[in-house]
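User
New here, help please:
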Amino acid sequence: MTRSTTLGVAALCAAGAFLLSGCGGGGGADDGAHPSGSGSASSSATNPTPSATASATAPALSGAPKFDLPPDVTVRFDGFDGGSATHAALLRDTSYAATAVLEFEAHGYPTEPSNFARYWAGGTGAEYADSIISQEKDGTVITGAYHYYRPVVKSLPDSGGNMSVTYCEDQRKAYSKVAKTGKVLTTQPSLSDFRQWTLLMTKGPHGDWQAFNHTWTKGAKQCEIS
């Protein structure tokens, strides 16, 4: 792993019991492609200022992360900017967690970057980071446009205030790219480009909401848009 577990395993299991069959997982086998890229597996066991396009520019909110996304990667979040103060902070940090994954996969970092470590907690976050690093050894990174929308927030019962956020992703204009040559590995748009994610979120030691487990499904009919 790239970093040590910071949350108790028992606490993670209790909070995620409604969704996951066990700790450290939440889906089927990984086919080795980037989870946010165009060639991802159908589900992943290792696995925005809201309503705006994230960029490498300094964020408006004090203490917010600064993401270093390359010019050929854009991200859009719709519906991540409403609700109560608690829900607004939760959705904001969920968007940061999603953007941190894109930043990681876009650069092919050999070690876990600080934004990812900030918004992905514990042993599951470490395992997810290791899986991204392993996948990037094939020499590909991500490129293109990523769209996130339809977030749904739920409380996790008997979890001490932990929450879940389920949302959709559109990858029809998102692709893998050969890092050395810049060749984009394009694909034809299809239902498989629509993903549904569920992130289990907990308050971290510094007040950020952090993802401590997640699942995702490829080819999510409920996420299909025109």
